[in-house]
Each structure stands twice: as structure tokens, then as C-alpha cells.
Amino acid sequence: VIDVEPLIARELGRLVPEPAGQRADWDDVVGRAGLFRSRRRLMLAFAVLAAVFVTAGAVAKTLGGFDAWLSGTPGKPAAGKAQKRFEAANGRSWASFPTSTKLRELIRTEVDDREYVLYGFRSGDSLCLQLRASGFPKQLRGCAPRSAIANVSVPLVVLTGQWGFVDRARRPVAQVSFGIVADGVTYVGVHAVNGFRRARLGGNAYLFVESRPNTANRIFAVSARDATGRLRVVPIDSWPIDSWFTLRSSGRQPGGPTSLEARIAHPTVDWAERGEKRGFPGPRGARFVKPDPLSDLAVGLAGTQCLRALSGSVAVAGPPCGPLFARGPINVLVSCRLCGAFLEISGVAADGVERVTIFLADGNSQSAALRHNLFTSRVSRTQFPIRIVGYDGRDRVVSTQLWGAGPGLKVPPAAKRLRPVFQLQGPSGTSARLHVGPTVRGFHCWRATFSTGQKRGGCFRPVDGRPQPRIDLVQPAGPDLFFVGQVGRGTRRIEFRFANGDVVRPRFAHGHYVVAVPRDHLSTRQQRAFVVAFDLYDRRTLQQPVFFRLP
Amino acid sequence: VSEARVRDLEEVYRLRYRQFLRVATAIAGDEDAGHDAVQDGFASALRHRKDFRGDGPLEAWVWRAVVNAAKKARRQPLPRADVEFESTASNGAYAEEASVRAWVAGLPERQRLAVFLRYYADLDYRSIAAALDIEVGTVSATLATAHSTLRKQLGEVGV
Q1: Which terminal Cβ of chain B has fewer Cβ within 10 Å, N or C?
Q2: Burial A314-345, CB ≥16 within 10 A → b, else e
Q3: Does the model's ipTM exceed the 0.95 cut?
Q4: pTM for the whole thing?
Q5: Nearest chain A CA: its distance from B115 CA (Å)
Q6: Using the beta-carbon criterion (under 8 Å), do B119 and A12 form an inter-chain contact?
Q7: What would the pLDDT profile of A495-507 be if each residue is shown by its tens digit?
Q8: How many CB atoms lie within 10 A of CB A406?
């Protein structure tokens, strides 16, 4: 008889290696059990009582929701060094948060020898998360308005859907996503091109870190299991349309008035016309005002014709200067800093506009902070299209503007009629099929399907006639790996050059190509290849790296 | 008595967290879910600590709660993204791992749990019996059957 026990022990040991014990957290057990040590229980009761008095309305609206963020103190106070670092960076910003802003540490984790710490803080109407990754001097920040959290119907608010850290050689080091989660959420997962991954939870927030991500590894949804066990999936939208991956026309329309009740005959900003200086001087010759003194958003004017905006230390590239009120008594600038999940709304309202309300696609609305004719707010990408409405002192509608719902944003159905153009097999037997559709009113759609079940694709509007190859997808499919992309018009050929000298020259159909990565390069170690494009005269026009590995 | 039991539970947790995590991971399918199961299992044990009658080791009683939590975690479906282009995902696991996983997955549940508790947590038969709420003799027979099945399958692939 074979002594089977050592064999079983060895094989089982491979299956589930002995874990580290760092995650042990007895306080979390006690919390899950609903038990609190006497002192903590007393403090909690006190805090809850205070919150009930102060924010009774909000709590009623968000019962089972984001109370920890709206009225509590998630996580723990940040270490002194982190707080000082934050204060120093904040102090250098054009539009800074108040100096009394206190960071709280929510999640600390280590991935591939690099430490990631997620902090959170509240300031006025802004709820913000900030991520520090060791080795990278700049921190990543995402903010949401309090009203967006209070009114949300899902247990998760994504603040940064996806962001990549790259090293000096432009090699992708990590891909991250983070956001706020509701009280009682037990589980958050991230859906990406390379599969489904679980995120870290802590301090009513989630943090996802993918180390050494593939080129173009998109995160397209985040799912959360709420306190009742219900699973909710939140798509990560790109806006307005340049993303090929999540292009979906919501078909929704925001509420709010569509017609005017009164007119402002000659819209103007009197103090600017008089040359009066208001606010503080900032970049590009403008003077800025912070309509919400507790936020990091500022908006300003340079002269009487140039609208400018600031987000923290970043000056937004504004529109060309021109008459401010050519389209009515409100002029709006939509921008994004690091282009997270929330977009910044900045604008100027003519004299006579007493308040500005933003109506959202989900039926809710929020007030913009307005001061000295200038206003700011933040709106989630998922809430577009929006309607920005100005009211006069008698509460009459004097301006209404729709944003993000132009006819060009809807993909014509005819563009979605796809047909297969070619099929390719990887060295391990996985096959990939590519389908493309006709170009209709500038829209072009495609889809790649894999025998292992994945389906990827989207629609886009080609805007570039230069012969630039584009990598849309690095898709792991079972034991194989595929590159999927497009070439620009005027491209004669492209080739992929691998580190060992292998060269793959894909054929393309309707401007699309699919490459099966050769067997020698199928590894979990991050590798680099170069895609090189040649124009009609066989001149090399571009060379760019593509990073890839199996999960 | 109650406070003493809380301290005892905390001590079991601190001493044996890694073994609990390993077994829960094996049952639930991934380490995050395993960690949740350990936390939830101990939380359940804390809430119901008055139900512990003291007719066996406290640790074995906790094992039952953790195993149940891990089984519950495994039953929860993987989320699917309700988006236009969704992933149906592959995990690219190594073939060798996949075959070991297949051996274990092919065992009836009781055998599989007994194997996990025996090899990952190094529990004796009495504790396994308490954790799975079966007789000690049944543990012996269950493991013998599991060994036999595994022996046969290991032999087939020449390990």
C-alpha cells in the first residue's frame, strides 16, 4: 500500500499554500459580532446620538447607505507624517482645502513590494479619497460631492475608476481603482479585461491594485455585495465618447425645466466689466474665486472674455476666449483632473442669476456653489447628460443648458451590424474571431470573441488619419494571449517585435488586426514587445511598446 | 464566564488564525473569501458563545462555525458584470494545480472537508468529528475512503 499521506499533504500544500497571518484582525471579528467594549460602545452611542440630531434628514435618506462617510469618521487618523505631507502639498495648491482638513487612513496594503495607502477626508461638500503609492511622488485624488453620495442608489461610489502608475521607462507598474462603499458592504470585485479580481475593503472604501498590468487593461465595472447580501454591479463609464470600451448611450434625459420663464436682456458681469479685481490671482493672467471655500475647485476670469478653472494645483485648459454669454446668461466649462469618475463643472453666470441647479440623468439634482457670478460643482460621469439651470431672484428660469446628450453621441444601429472578418488560433488552441461593422455616420464598431468565452468590443469614431497602430486589447484567453487593435488609414503594414527577435506580421481587415502571442512569450512574467507601423512608402512611422503577461 | 469565553475565543483566533484561514480558503475557493469566512465564523461563535456547552474543545466548536461560514461563502455566486461587453473570464491556472483541484473537487463534501481539516489544520479525529458534527468513527472511515480515492487518482497520473 502506498503511503499516500505525504503525497496528499504535498499536493494540498501546492493547492493552498500556508497563508501569512497579517490579516488577522480581532477587532473586526468583534465588530462583525455586533459587540463593543464598554468604552467604545459609549463613544459610539454618543456619536450616533449627535449624528441623529445634526443630520436627521440625511440619515433618513441614506438609511443603510453611506452614514459612515456622511456623518461618521471612517478608518483611523492618518499618521503625522502623512498628515504633514498632505498639508505641504495642499499648501502649494492654487485652490487648496482648508488647513484644518484631517486625513484618515482607510486601507494600507502591499502589492509586489510596493505599499499603497488609501486616505480619505471630508471638506465642506467634498468627500475625497487620496492614494499614495510608494515610489511615486504624486498622489492620486478623487472627490465627490456630498449630495452624490447621499442620493446614490447603489452601495458603491467609484471615485477613480481606473488609473495607471508607470515608471520612468513608461512601463506600467500598477493599475488602481478606488471608491467609497456603503456601510455593511462585505465584498467588492473588479471586472477587467484580464478577468475578475477582488478588491481590498477598509474604512468604508475599496482599493483595487493590479500589479504589472497589461497594456490597455481596462476596468469596466465594479461590483459590491451590500449588507443584505445583494450584489450590485456599477459600470465604469467613460465620457463623452472617445472610449471604445464602454460606449453606451444611456438614452436618459435629465429632469429640470427646458424652457425659459424670463430673459436677461444683456447678460454681463458688472464687476468684471468695471475692471474690479475679485478673488485671488492665479495662472494664465486670471483671478479666481472659490465658490465653495471648503473645496479645491476655483473658477475665474481673465479680462471679460476668458473663463478659467482650477482644480487643486492643476490649471484646467480652458476654452478659447470670446464673448462669455453668446449662448445665454450662463457659460459652462466641463473638465476633469486626472479624469476620474467625477467631472468638474465650472462656470460664470451673468448678473441676475441668483442660483444654479444641475439636474442629473437619474432624476436627482444638486446645487452648484455660486459666488461672485462664478460657480463650481462635481458630477459623476454616470449622471450625464445633465441640465444646468439658472434662476433669477424671483426663482424664474433664466437659463437652461443640456450637456452631454448631443445627437452625435448615439451610435446608429446600422453601425452595430457586425460580420465576421477573420479567425485566428493561439499556440495553445484558443481561437479568436473578429467581427467588424460598417462605418455609419462616422461610427465604427467591432467585436472580438474568444473560444474561452470572452467577448470584447465597442464602437468609436475614427478621428485620426495618421498611420498609427492602436492597441485596444491585450486579452488573456485560457492559456493563450491575444493582441487586438487597429491601424490608421495609410498604413501599409505593421509588425510586432518580441524581445527574442521573433517578429509577427499580422494581416488586417477593415483596419483591425488580431495577433496570437507566440508560445515562447506565454508567461506570467511581464514582457515587452514593440508594435511598429509602416506607411504606404514603407517608411517606419511609429514604434510603441506593448506590455503583456498571462494572469 | 462570558468575558472569560471571549478571551478564550480571542486566544484561539490569535493562535490559530492561519490554520483557520487555510481551511476556509480551501473550502471557499479564494483567500479573500476565506478571510471573510474566518471573521464571520468567529463573529458567529462570539455571538452564540453562551451555546457552547463545554462538552468538547472550544476550538473544535469554533471550527464548526468557520466551516459553515466558508461553505456559505462558496455558495455565493461570482458576480457578473451587467455591461454590454462582459467578461466570462478564465484564470489561467496552471494545469498541475487544476488537476489537484479536480481530485479534491471530485470528493464528496464530507470527505473533502475532513481532508482539509486533517491536512491544513492538523486536527485530530475527535476535533474533526466535533467540527463536522459526526462520530469519531465516521471520521476514520471518511478519511480512509478519501485516502483510497486519492491514492487511486494519484496512482493514475503517476505522482
Answers
A1: N
A2: bbbebeeeeebbeebbbbbbbbbbeebbbbbb
A3: no
A4: 0.68
A5: 9
A6: yes
A7: 999 999 999 999 8
A8: 11
